[in-house]
Amino acid sequence: MAEAGYPDGIDITLHTSTVTGGMVEMAVAYKESAAPAGIRVEINRAPEDAYWSKVWMTEAFTTVGWNGRNPDQALSIVYLCDADWNESRICIDELDALIIKARGETDLEERKKLYAETQRILIDDASRLIAVFRPIFIGLSDKVKGIDAHPNNWLIVSQGWLEE
To answer: Does residue 111 have a pLDDT over 90?
Structure first.
């Protein structure tokens, strides 16, 4: 912290709510893990009916929970310069170009390379903490075919069948 210009540590406010499960717990876990580094976190818990309209995208440091999305959606809605939900206010022309190029890339290996470069930029330059990726599980009998776990935890059975 001293090298960053905060020899006595820093005080920050983390805004959260129970509007999405796990956000308050995530804020508490961050507060506890940041304390040894001299980061003193005050947790401000907003009511559910005001969080999305008055806190999220308004306050500088907030918690949020996202459902799973394909890579293009996940990147486009929060990292493109003009994205409505660009929480970190990041705007890097090179990042925009990579996201858009990956969107149209038909070769899977090349698309993976573009997304890897996108991730490198985000790791180096984005002011965002991603504390956890929620695992997606589905339990099915061996007789159930054609149904997979969905990133949003939706049970989509329209393509499924039972095998005797």
So the answer is: yes
